[in-house]
Amino acid sequence: MKIAIMSRNSKLYSTRRLVEAAKERSHEVRVVDPLRCYMNITSHRPSIHYRGETLDDFQAVIPRIGASITFYGCAVLRQFEMMGVYPLNESVAITRARDKLRSAQLLARKGIGLPVTGFAHSPDDINDLIDQVGGAPLVIKLLEGTQGIGVVLSETRQAAESVIQAFMGLKANIMVQEYIGEAKGADLRCLVIGDKVVAAMKRQAKEGEFRSNLHRGGTATLVRITPEERSTAVRAARVMGLNVCGVDLLRSNHGSVVMEVNSSPGLEGIENATGKDVASMIIQFIEKNAKPYKTKTRGKG
Protein backbone atom coordinates (compact mmCIF):
# COMPACT_ATOMS: atom_id res chain seq x y z
CA MET A 1 0.00 0.00 0.00
CA LYS A 2 1.17 3.55 -0.71
CA ILE A 3 0.53 5.88 2.24
CA ALA A 4 0.87 9.67 2.46
CA ILE A 5 1.56 11.35 5.79
CA MET A 6 0.50 14.98 5.87
CA SER A 7 3.07 16.63 8.13
CA ARG A 8 5.03 19.88 8.02
CA ASN A 9 8.11 18.30 9.59
CA SER A 10 9.36 14.80 8.78
CA LYS A 11 11.71 14.91 11.80
CA LEU A 12 8.93 15.11 14.40
CA TYR A 13 8.76 12.01 16.62
CA SER A 14 5.18 11.08 15.64
CA THR A 15 5.87 11.46 11.92
CA ARG A 16 9.12 9.46 12.13
CA ARG A 17 7.44 6.64 14.05
CA LEU A 18 4.59 6.38 11.56
CA VAL A 19 7.09 6.25 8.68
CA GLU A 20 9.10 3.52 10.46
CA ALA A 21 5.99 1.49 11.28
CA ALA A 22 4.69 1.69 7.70
CA LYS A 23 8.05 0.63 6.23
CA GLU A 24 8.37 -2.25 8.74
CA ARG A 25 5.06 -3.56 7.41
CA SER A 26 6.30 -3.25 3.80
CA HIS A 27 4.31 -0.20 2.78
CA GLU A 28 5.57 2.65 0.64
CA VAL A 29 5.27 5.90 2.58
CA ARG A 30 5.84 9.56 1.77
CA VAL A 31 5.73 12.65 4.01
CA VAL A 32 3.93 15.55 2.32
CA ASP A 33 3.89 19.13 3.62
CA PRO A 34 0.22 20.18 3.28
CA LEU A 35 1.14 23.84 2.83
CA ARG A 36 3.16 22.95 -0.28
CA CYS A 37 0.18 21.15 -1.84
CA TYR A 38 -2.01 22.92 -4.36
CA MET A 39 -5.20 21.64 -5.89
CA ASN A 40 -7.13 21.41 -9.13
CA ILE A 41 -10.79 21.30 -8.10
CA THR A 42 -12.82 19.78 -10.95
CA SER A 43 -15.87 17.53 -11.11
CA HIS A 44 -14.37 14.73 -13.18
CA ARG A 45 -10.74 14.58 -12.15
CA PRO A 46 -9.85 16.38 -8.90
CA SER A 47 -6.09 16.39 -8.29
CA ILE A 48 -3.41 17.45 -5.82
CA HIS A 49 -0.05 18.80 -6.96
CA TYR A 50 3.11 18.90 -4.87
CA ARG A 51 6.41 20.52 -5.83
CA GLY A 52 5.53 20.27 -9.52
CA GLU A 53 4.23 16.68 -9.55
CA THR A 54 0.77 15.14 -9.28
CA LEU A 55 -0.10 13.07 -6.19
CA ASP A 56 -2.47 10.51 -7.66
CA ASP A 57 -1.43 7.04 -6.53
CA PHE A 58 -1.94 6.91 -2.75
CA GLN A 59 -4.33 4.43 -1.16
CA ALA A 60 -4.38 6.04 2.30
CA VAL A 61 -3.49 9.35 3.96
CA ILE A 62 -2.56 10.02 7.60
CA PRO A 63 -3.30 13.66 8.49
CA ARG A 64 -0.95 15.19 11.08
CA ILE A 65 -2.36 18.70 10.74
CA GLY A 66 -1.24 21.31 13.29
CA ALA A 67 -3.88 23.62 14.78
CA SER A 68 -2.38 26.67 13.09
CA ILE A 69 -3.01 25.23 9.60
CA THR A 70 -6.37 23.52 10.22
CA PHE A 71 -8.22 25.36 7.44
CA TYR A 72 -5.74 24.73 4.63
CA GLY A 73 -4.72 21.28 5.89
CA CYS A 74 -8.34 20.11 5.96
CA ALA A 75 -8.90 21.54 2.47
CA VAL A 76 -6.03 19.38 1.16
CA LEU A 77 -7.32 16.35 3.07
CA ARG A 78 -10.82 16.92 1.65
CA GLN A 79 -9.28 16.89 -1.84
CA PHE A 80 -7.63 13.51 -1.08
CA GLU A 81 -11.06 12.25 0.00
CA MET A 82 -12.61 13.47 -3.27
CA MET A 83 -9.92 11.50 -5.11
CA GLY A 84 -10.94 8.31 -3.28
CA VAL A 85 -7.93 8.14 -0.92
CA TYR A 86 -8.78 6.60 2.48
CA PRO A 87 -8.27 9.14 5.31
CA LEU A 88 -7.24 7.87 8.75
CA ASN A 89 -9.33 10.75 10.14
CA GLU A 90 -11.80 12.57 7.91
CA SER A 91 -11.55 16.31 7.27
CA VAL A 92 -15.03 16.97 8.69
CA ALA A 93 -14.17 15.13 11.91
CA ILE A 94 -10.90 17.03 12.35
CA THR A 95 -12.63 20.39 11.80
CA ARG A 96 -15.31 19.39 14.31
CA ALA A 97 -12.78 18.35 16.97
CA ARG A 98 -10.68 21.52 16.53
CA ASP A 99 -13.65 23.71 17.47
CA LYS A 100 -13.73 23.43 21.28
CA LEU A 101 -17.23 24.88 21.57
CA ARG A 102 -18.73 22.70 18.86
CA SER A 103 -17.03 19.64 20.39
CA ALA A 104 -18.50 20.42 23.82
CA GLN A 105 -21.98 20.89 22.36
CA LEU A 106 -21.83 17.61 20.43
CA LEU A 107 -20.51 15.64 23.43
CA ALA A 108 -23.11 17.18 25.75
CA ARG A 109 -25.90 16.30 23.30
CA LYS A 110 -24.85 12.63 23.52
CA GLY A 111 -24.80 12.71 27.33
CA ILE A 112 -21.02 12.48 27.76
CA GLY A 113 -19.72 14.02 30.99
CA LEU A 114 -18.04 17.44 30.68
CA PRO A 115 -16.92 20.18 33.05
CA VAL A 116 -19.77 22.71 33.36
CA THR A 117 -19.13 25.05 30.43
CA GLY A 118 -20.36 28.55 29.60
CA PHE A 119 -20.14 30.72 26.50
CA ALA A 120 -21.15 34.33 25.96
CA HIS A 121 -20.56 37.25 23.62
CA SER A 122 -21.52 40.34 25.62
CA PRO A 123 -19.47 41.78 28.53
CA ASP A 124 -22.80 42.53 30.23
CA ASP A 125 -23.29 38.79 30.81
CA ILE A 126 -19.97 38.06 32.54
CA ASN A 127 -21.27 37.91 36.11
CA ASP A 128 -24.09 35.51 35.23
CA LEU A 129 -21.67 33.42 33.15
CA ILE A 130 -19.30 33.05 36.11
CA ASP A 131 -22.20 32.01 38.36
CA GLN A 132 -23.35 29.37 35.86
CA VAL A 133 -20.04 27.50 36.07
CA GLY A 134 -19.97 27.60 39.87
CA GLY A 135 -17.95 30.76 40.43
CA ALA A 136 -14.20 31.07 40.95
CA PRO A 137 -11.81 29.37 40.65
CA LEU A 138 -12.61 28.72 36.99
CA VAL A 139 -10.83 28.04 33.71
CA ILE A 140 -10.98 30.36 30.68
CA LYS A 141 -10.08 28.86 27.30
CA LEU A 142 -9.45 30.37 23.89
CA LEU A 143 -11.46 28.33 21.39
CA GLU A 144 -8.47 28.25 19.02
CA GLY A 145 -5.84 27.34 21.63
CA THR A 146 -3.80 24.13 21.63
CA GLN A 147 -1.19 22.37 23.84
CA GLY A 148 -2.35 24.40 26.84
CA ILE A 149 -1.78 27.76 25.12
CA GLY A 150 -4.63 30.20 25.72
CA VAL A 151 -5.85 28.42 28.87
CA VAL A 152 -6.03 30.55 32.02
CA LEU A 153 -6.92 29.58 35.59
CA SER A 154 -8.62 32.46 37.40
CA GLU A 155 -8.57 31.85 41.14
CA THR A 156 -10.79 34.78 42.15
CA ARG A 157 -13.96 36.29 40.73
CA GLN A 158 -12.25 39.63 40.18
CA ALA A 159 -9.42 37.99 38.23
CA ALA A 160 -11.95 36.03 36.14
CA GLU A 161 -13.87 39.19 35.27
CA SER A 162 -10.67 40.98 34.24
CA VAL A 163 -9.42 38.14 32.03
CA ILE A 164 -12.80 37.62 30.34
CA GLN A 165 -13.14 41.37 29.70
CA ALA A 166 -9.61 41.47 28.25
CA PHE A 167 -10.29 38.56 25.88
CA MET A 168 -13.65 40.02 24.83
CA GLY A 169 -11.95 43.38 24.23
CA LEU A 170 -9.61 41.62 21.79
CA LYS A 171 -12.63 40.03 20.04
CA ALA A 172 -11.29 36.59 20.99
CA ASN A 173 -13.74 33.70 21.26
CA ILE A 174 -13.52 32.08 24.68
CA MET A 175 -15.41 29.61 26.81
CA VAL A 176 -15.50 29.38 30.59
CA GLN A 177 -15.39 26.08 32.49
CA GLU A 178 -15.63 24.94 36.07
CA TYR A 179 -12.26 24.13 37.63
CA ILE A 180 -11.97 20.46 38.64
CA GLY A 181 -9.77 21.01 41.70
CA GLU A 182 -9.96 17.38 42.85
CA ALA A 183 -7.98 16.33 39.73
CA LYS A 184 -4.96 18.05 41.35
CA GLY A 185 -3.33 19.04 38.07
CA ALA A 186 -3.57 15.54 36.57
CA ASP A 187 -5.49 14.19 33.60
CA LEU A 188 -5.72 10.93 31.67
CA ARG A 189 -4.77 10.70 28.00
CA CYS A 190 -6.57 7.76 26.39
CA LEU A 191 -5.36 6.84 22.90
CA VAL A 192 -8.31 5.49 20.91
CA ILE A 193 -7.93 3.52 17.68
CA GLY A 194 -11.19 2.37 16.12
CA ASP A 195 -13.44 1.30 18.96
CA LYS A 196 -10.70 0.53 21.50
CA VAL A 197 -8.50 2.38 23.98
CA VAL A 198 -5.12 0.89 23.03
CA ALA A 199 -2.98 2.87 25.52
CA ALA A 200 -3.50 5.24 28.43
CA MET A 201 -1.24 7.46 30.52
CA LYS A 202 -1.61 9.85 33.43
CA ARG A 203 -0.21 13.33 32.84
CA GLN A 204 0.76 15.32 35.91
CA ALA A 205 1.34 19.07 35.82
CA LYS A 206 4.61 20.38 37.20
CA GLU A 207 4.66 22.14 40.59
CA GLY A 208 2.72 25.42 40.53
CA GLU A 209 1.08 24.66 37.16
CA PHE A 210 -2.45 23.37 36.51
CA ARG A 211 -1.99 22.44 32.83
CA SER A 212 -0.72 18.88 32.47
CA ASN A 213 0.38 19.11 28.81
CA LEU A 214 3.80 17.55 28.27
CA HIS A 215 4.73 20.65 26.23
CA ARG A 216 4.16 22.67 29.42
CA GLY A 217 6.54 20.52 31.49
CA GLY A 218 4.08 17.85 32.64
CA THR A 219 5.19 14.26 33.26
CA ALA A 220 3.60 11.05 31.96
CA THR A 221 3.22 7.69 33.69
CA LEU A 222 1.42 4.44 32.90
CA VAL A 223 -2.08 4.26 34.39
CA ARG A 224 -4.84 1.68 34.65
CA ILE A 225 -8.16 3.20 33.65
CA THR A 226 -11.60 2.04 34.75
CA PRO A 227 -14.20 0.44 32.43
CA GLU A 228 -16.24 3.66 32.75
CA GLU A 229 -13.27 5.77 31.63
CA ARG A 230 -12.59 3.39 28.75
CA SER A 231 -16.22 3.58 27.62
CA THR A 232 -16.29 7.40 27.91
CA ALA A 233 -13.15 7.74 25.75
CA VAL A 234 -14.50 5.43 23.02
CA ARG A 235 -17.89 7.16 22.99
CA ALA A 236 -16.24 10.61 22.76
CA ALA A 237 -14.16 9.47 19.76
CA ARG A 238 -17.27 8.09 18.08
CA VAL A 239 -19.22 11.33 18.61
CA MET A 240 -16.38 13.29 17.00
CA GLY A 241 -16.22 10.79 14.13
CA LEU A 242 -12.50 10.18 14.67
CA ASN A 243 -10.87 6.79 14.01
CA VAL A 244 -7.70 7.73 15.90
CA CYS A 245 -7.57 10.37 18.63
CA GLY A 246 -6.39 11.25 22.10
CA VAL A 247 -9.22 11.73 24.60
CA ASP A 248 -8.26 13.73 27.69
CA LEU A 249 -10.25 12.89 30.83
CA LEU A 250 -10.36 14.43 34.29
CA ARG A 251 -11.28 12.40 37.36
CA SER A 252 -13.91 14.54 39.10
CA ASN A 253 -16.13 13.98 42.15
CA HIS A 254 -19.00 13.21 39.78
CA GLY A 255 -17.16 10.72 37.55
CA SER A 256 -14.83 11.09 34.58
CA VAL A 257 -15.35 14.16 32.39
CA VAL A 258 -13.97 14.85 28.92
CA MET A 259 -11.65 17.84 28.76
CA GLU A 260 -10.67 17.58 25.08
CA VAL A 261 -10.60 15.26 22.06
CA ASN A 262 -7.35 15.63 20.08
CA SER A 263 -7.45 14.60 16.41
CA SER A 264 -3.63 14.52 16.02
CA PRO A 265 -2.35 13.08 19.31
CA GLY A 266 1.40 13.00 19.82
CA LEU A 267 2.90 9.52 20.03
CA GLU A 268 6.11 10.20 21.96
CA GLY A 269 4.64 10.61 25.44
CA ILE A 270 2.21 7.70 25.23
CA GLU A 271 4.68 5.27 23.62
CA ASN A 272 7.37 6.09 26.18
CA ALA A 273 4.97 5.90 29.15
CA THR A 274 3.26 2.65 28.11
CA GLY A 275 5.94 0.88 26.07
CA LYS A 276 3.33 0.17 23.38
CA ASP A 277 3.96 0.42 19.65
CA VAL A 278 1.04 2.74 18.91
CA ALA A 279 2.41 3.70 15.48
CA SER A 280 2.20 0.07 14.28
CA MET A 281 -1.33 -0.22 15.65
CA ILE A 282 -2.32 2.80 13.54
CA ILE A 283 -0.81 1.26 10.39
CA GLN A 284 -2.59 -2.05 11.12
CA PHE A 285 -5.89 -0.17 11.46
CA ILE A 286 -5.31 1.37 8.01
CA GLU A 287 -4.52 -2.07 6.54
CA LYS A 288 -7.85 -3.44 7.78
CA ASN A 289 -10.00 -0.47 6.83
CA ALA A 290 -8.53 1.31 3.80
CA LYS A 291 -10.80 1.10 0.77
CA PRO A 292 -11.29 3.55 -2.10
CA TYR A 293 -13.91 6.25 -1.39
CA LYS A 294 -14.51 4.86 2.11
CA THR A 295 -15.51 8.14 3.77
CA LYS A 296 -18.82 8.90 5.43
CA THR A 297 -18.88 12.36 3.89
CA ARG A 298 -17.24 11.72 0.48
CA GLY A 299 -15.50 15.07 0.83
CA LYS A 300 -18.73 16.94 1.62
CA GLY A 301 -19.25 19.26 4.60
Present the secondary structure layout.
Blueprint lengths: L1 E5 L6 H12 L3 E5 L4 E4 L6 E4 L2 E2 L5 E4 L6 H13 L3 E2 L3 H8 L1 H10 L7 E2 L7 H7 L5 E5 L8 E4 L2 H13 L4 E5 L7 E8 L2 E9 L14 E4 L4 H14 L3 E9 L2 E8 L5 H7 L3 H12 L12
Parallel strand pairs: 1-2, 1-6, 6-7
Antiparallel strand pairs: 3-4, 4-5, 8-11, 9-10, 9-11, 12-13, 12-15, 13-14, 15-16
Helix pairs in contact: 1-9, 2-3
General description of the model:
With 301 residues, the chain is α+β, with helices and mostly antiparallel strands. It has three domains: 2-89, Rossmann fold (3-Layer(aba) Sandwich), CATH 3.40.50; 96-111 and 182-284, 2-Layer Sandwich (D-amino Acid Aminotransferase, Chain A, domain 1), CATH 3.30.470.20; 117-179, ATP-grasp fold, A domain (Dna Ligase, domain 1), CATH 3.30.1490.20. The protein is 32% helix and 27% strand. It contains nine helices and 16 strands. It has helices spanning 13-24, 70-82, 91-98, 100-109, 126-132, 157-169, 227-240, 268-274, 278-289, and strands at 2-6, 28-32, 37-40, 47-50, 53-54, 60-63, 86-87, 117-118, 138-142, 151-154, 174-178, 186-193, 196-204, 219-222, 244-252, 255-262. The strands form four sheets. It has a five-stranded antiparallel beta sheet, sandwiched between helices. A four-stranded parallel beta sheet has the order 2-1-6-7, sandwiched between helices. Strands 8-11-9-10 form a four-stranded antiparallel beta sheet, sandwiched between helices. Helix 1 (13-24) crosses helix 9 (278-289) and helix 2 (70-82) runs antiparallel to helix 3. The longest helix is centred in the C-terminal third of the chain and has 14 residues, at 227-240.
